[in-house]
Amino acid sequence: MKSDSAASAGYCHDKIIELNDVSFSYNDQKVISDFSFVVKERDFVGVIGSNGAGKTTLLRMMVGLLKPTKGEISMFGQPIRRFRDWDRIGYVPQKNAFNPLFPATVREVVLSGLYSNKMMFRRVGKAEQQKCDDALEVMRITDIADKRIGQLSGGQQQRVFLARALINKPDLLILDEPTVGIDAQTQSDFFELIFHMHAHHHMTFLMVSHDIDIIEGYLGQEPRDHCGAIKLYVRHSHEQDCAIPDLQHSLT
Ligand SMILES: Nc1ncnc2c1ncn2[C@@H]1O[C@H](COP(=O)(O)OP(=O)(O)OP(=O)(O)O)[C@@H](O)[C@H]1O
What we know:
Elements: H1 4-9, E1 15-26, E2 29-40, E3 43-48, H2 55-62, E4 70-75, E5 78-79, E6 89-92, H3 106-112, H4 126-138, H5 154-166, E7 172-176, H6 184-200, E8 204-208, H7 212-219, E9 225-227, E10 230-236
Helix pairs in contact: 3-5, 4-5
Adenosine-5'-triphosphate binds near residues 49, 51 and 52.
């Protein structure tokens, strides 16, 4: 169903990311060629392609970690070089890993997702602890909340990264193969959760995945665009916003 307020304000159609004729090369290897694409507010964009097609490169350009060799990228309507509002964006890169000696606990790492750098030393209140408990619960890591992050398995660490990205419900969440190494039940809960967040909580997603069934199941069978061997699938949401704030309600 279309949300009246959103539709009348034209609100769900703001551009969040705009790529204008973008190319990228590593030395003399051209990976992205003359690609233009728009991610709009409340889009869910699925990115699929074979190994080495350039998916991670595309995402890293979109979050400002790589500078295009040609073309322009805008973020929330601003040229990316001037964009400063990074707190609006969550990014979970591929193959995260903590140094085994990193001293923070799982709970501390997840809570850190609530704070921008300037607010890092704020006292953690009850409301924040509640959000943290909620994020730990949906990623099934409550039982390891007090463990040191560096001592966890790869799959457990990945769940911590996802909980950290979800806790603050960023306007845009960018996920690079988010469920690699995660068990089947947690994977299926995670997708249920993010599809609900997309449909009903005004979040925009950009996700690289090799799971064609997941991508086609939610985004349909026809890609909207191609970038070389990369296919981009898009679903836009006009669903009614859901008023329940916690993350757990989205799991049935
Ligand atoms: N730092 C780098 N320096 C040089 N070449 C690179 C670098 N990173 C990636 N490449 C090359 O760019 C191409 C695209 O790599 P990219 O990691 O973007 O692919 P991908 O689609 O994400 O692959 P995968 O599915 O394996 O994660 C590959 O040929 C890769 O070897």
